[in-house]
Amino acid sequence: MEVMNASVLAFEIIGTIAFAASGAMVGIGKKMDLLGIIILGLTAAIGGGAIRDIIIGNTPVQAVRYPNYSLIAIATAIVMFHPLIRNEIHRHEAKFNLLLFIMDTVGLGVFTVVGIASARGFVSEYNFFLLVFVGTVTGVGGGVIRDVLAGDVPFIFVKHFYATASIIGAAVCTLLWDRAGENIAMTSGAAVVIILRILAAKYRWKLPRA
């Protein structure tokens, strides 16, 4: 159990840093002040988890009960606000977009499987739809809140294969959980999300539009 808990903790820290960095970079791109950048980084990092906890009835939400993740997100946003990093982002838009894509993709993959792990630990009975739904909401929720606060159309509506990649990765993680174990299931699910996002960006995969 200790090994499994440690693996979930590692995934959560990686996801928190990745999404907090993505939120901070969006704020920097919008030329927000330090508070705005911290808020975007914080909401991107903890927003999906908060929605997940409300859905499964795990209240008060973990972000409030265990503020370490919020502190990590705030610290990450402050680091991103450093003049050296901030100036580089403003000077090199292409690098900024690539870094934002990487951070957002890693955060999406990691938080998708973390959402499933949290639901598995809180909900006693197995429910495939619930686990996939909660995993997807955890993955995309923070990004949606970040984009809305930044005044952008959320990624899940316009970007390559975003929520769809999360759904597929969540399904893979859920199906492997009892067959291969928690570590393999989480690693495989996150990898599927990340690989699909990269392939979708490279080959311009898009869902049909109206």
Q: Calculate the mean pLDDT score and round it.
A: 88
Oligomer: single chain
Listing every helix as H and every strand as E from the N terminus to the C terminus, the arrangement reads HHHHHHHHHH
N- to C-terminal separation? 48 Å
> What portion of residues belong to β-strands?
under 5%
Helical fraction equals over 70%
Strand tally is 0
What order do the helices and strands come in, and which of them pair?
Layout (H helix, E strand, L loop, with lengths): L1 H28 L4 H23 L5 H4 L2 H13 L2 H9 L1 H30 L5 H23 L4 H4 L3 H19 L1 H22 L7
Question: Explain this structure to me?
Answer:
- The protein has one domain (2-203).
- Helices cover 83% and strands 0% of the residues.
- The protein is built from 10 helices and no strands.
- α1 runs parallel beside α4, α1 (2-29) packs antiparallel against α6 (93-122) and α1 (2-29) runs parallel beside α7 (128-150).
- It is globular, with a radius of gyration of 16 Å.
